[in-house]
Design brief:
2 helices
């Protein structure tokens, strides 16, 4: 019975509220071999089939300050894969009691008064390699020197006009795309 309740939290029907972030153990047993993501509003395919990772990998080390050309860091998630973000990601940023990363795989950030900030954004986004997505354009991205930041929230729009994801692509940030499970559908693809 407990296993069924956990499985129920994994599926998020279109238009419903996001389920609680599943734990990796439950997902590994219940996950299909591959998953493709589509816009919940229009059904447009946003990715091809992707393999589920047990957790979001650590962002690769990248000395962006030594790069000959500014641009995105190496991708956090390998091509052909996705993982579920179990920590809060994106806005709102709120004052924290103790310093720590503002968002997963990012450094610390402080208010002008020196108080540490942390994300109180959504949990449960599907984190993918940005190069694995198609049909998205950038809109409402927070300004940065050479890419998008997640500070303003959803900044990737489907061709139908629906905001569906948050891109992090500035040179000093992890290169990753967070698909909002409130705005996309996950379609399991089972091996024949």
């Amino acid at each position: 019975m407990e296993g069924q309740r956990r499985q129920d939290r994994i599926s998020v029907p279109p238009g419903s509220k996001r389920a609680a972030a599943p734990d990796a153990v439950t997902v590994d047993r219940a996950a299909p071999e591959m998953t493709a993501f589509a816009c919940a509003a229009c059904g447009a395919a946003l990715t091809g089939p992707l393999k589920r990772l047990p957790a979001v990998p650590d962002a690769p080390y990248y000395a962006w300050w030594d790069a000959e050309e500014m641009g995105p860091s190496p991708a956090t998630v390998p091509s052909g894969c996705y993982a579920i973000e179990t920590e809060p990601y994106g806005p709102p940023l709120v004052v924290a009691e103790a310093p720590g990363p503002v968002m997963p795989r990012q450094g610390m950030r402080f208010t002008v008064e020196g108080q540490p900030l942390v994300s109180q954004g959504p949990r449960g986004n599907a984190v993918v390699n940005p190069d694995d997505c198609r049909g998205l354009t950038t809109r409402h991205a927070s300004a940065a020197c050479c890419g998008a930041t997640p500070d303003g929230g959803l900044n990737q729009v489907c061709a139908c006009g629906t905001l569906v994801a948050t891109l992090s692509s500035d040179c000093c940030l992890p290169y990753e795309l967070h698909l909002s499970l409130d705005h996309v559908r996950a379609a399991p693809i089972r091996a024949a």
